[in-house]
Specification:
226 residues; alpha+beta; Aminopeptidase; 2 domains; eight-stranded mixed beta sheet; three-stranded antiparallel beta sheet; 11 strands
Length: 226
């Protein structure tokens, strides 16, 4: 059975839109560690994992995504697993006021990294903020919230890294950035999708309220070299 392009989102993003930020090829490919820990193989064979082993790996290991838990071959060991729900836009989100929302750039990478470390929205490396369009809000010169894009492939773009500083939560800032990001992706001609940990019931309910529906289970397998 032919797999859907979203069944292996990291791999399909790396061999298409993010190829410029990747190392390797379609047989075994990985994001350069400064952009993130994601990787993938074209087939689950020992030779593919041997090729993956030759690539530069960061402290967070390689994160592999598929619709089932992956058992790596060769000289890798599994250090963690996670079960996510992949959700895809089902209903057009309403327009919101874009006042005070700005597009973030390279000058903001330091603050983006610090906010992500504080809020822990998922893996976020020093240069993750460069891999897609990120928007945010500031209080004076302090970044207080952000939302951006990560995986991108033909017709689909992932929304990621929704982060609001604890001092500014409960004001609807996150929902505003979320909605603006979704509409920007739609206006570009892509369909937004996202990943949320399966046990995050509150997050799932929020995303459903914002127009997303469940598409598939996605299993994250984090591996490191033995």
């Amino acid at each position: 059975m032919t797999k859907h392009i979203l069944d292996t989102p990291a791999y399909n993003s790396l061999i298409t839109h993010h190829k410029i930020r990747a190392q390797g090829n379609e047989f075994a490919i990985a994001m350069q560690p400064e952009f993130g820990p994601f990787a993938g193989v074209g087939e689950y064979s020992k030779s593919a994992f041997d090729a993956l082993y030759s690539l530069n790996i960061g402290e967070d290991g390689f994160w592999l995504l598929d619709t089932f838990p992956i058992e790596p071959l060769g000289d890798f060991e599994v250090v963690a697993r996670a079960h996510c729900h992949q959700m895809i836009l089902d209903k057009l989100p309403p327009e919101v006021d874009v006042a005070e929302v700005v597009t973030l750039g390279n000058a903001d990478l330091g603050q983006m990294y610090e906010l992500a470390k504080l809020c822990n929205p998922g893996p976020f490396a020093t240069n993750t903020g460069e891999i897609g369009e990120f928007i945010g809000m500031f209080d004076n010169e302090r970044l207080i919230a952000m939302m951006g894009e990560r995986f991108r492939m033909p017709e689909f773009t992932e929304m990621t890294a929704l982060s609001t500083h604890p001092d500014y939560r409960g004001k609807g800032i996150g929902a505003k950035l979320f909605t603006i990001t979704a509409r920007r992706i739609l206006n570009r001609g892509d369909t937004p999708f996202l990943h949320v940990y399966a046990e995050n019931e509150n997050g799932i309910k929020l995303y459903e309220k914002l127009g997303f529906k469940f598409r598939s289970d996605i299993h994250v397998t984090i591996i490191k070299k033995k």
